Sequence to fold (182 residues):
Amino acid sequence: MAAKPHALTALALISFTESSFFPIPPDVLLIPMVLAARARAWRIAAVCTAASVIGGLFGYGIGYFLFESIGQPVLSFYGYEDRFAAFRTTYDEWGALIVFGAGLTPFPFKVITIASGVFQMNIVVFVLASVIARGSRFFLVAALLYWFGPVIRDFIEKRLGLLTILFFVLLVGGFVLLRYVV
Fold:
């Protein structure tokens, strides 16, 4: 599919749905598309990023508009109101970093986009964190493939997620250290 005329549209659709409700990450199409047309790497990454952020806004809307009718009764049924309130406090404090981390790592972004809507995170902060994180992720993959071609593909598929998580843990650890130690 990566070399087909409608591949960019398919990538946009996958990126959109992955950010709001679909379990397949866009990398499954992003990687072969960039390898098939390395000269278009930046355009492919841009479409992937834009569609992902727009899909994230759709996920935000799911959380924002459907929580009261669907989510709240489920929390009540299981008796999780107190846990939810505690998590909300954490999310209010660290929300931008949570969105950034989820957008950068292999963590399912849809969980965070919906949670951001549920917690009514500032929409501008949500969009900015999403654009920076998703853009960084997709442009990094495109750049590695552009510069190194098929040789780097195995590295991306096997280790990039782990390295990104490690980077994010170190980043968050630095912020926590600065906040509570310094």
Summary: The CA atoms of residues 10 and 162 lie 27 Å apart. The longest helix spans residues 41-78. The two ends are 52 Å apart (CA to CA).
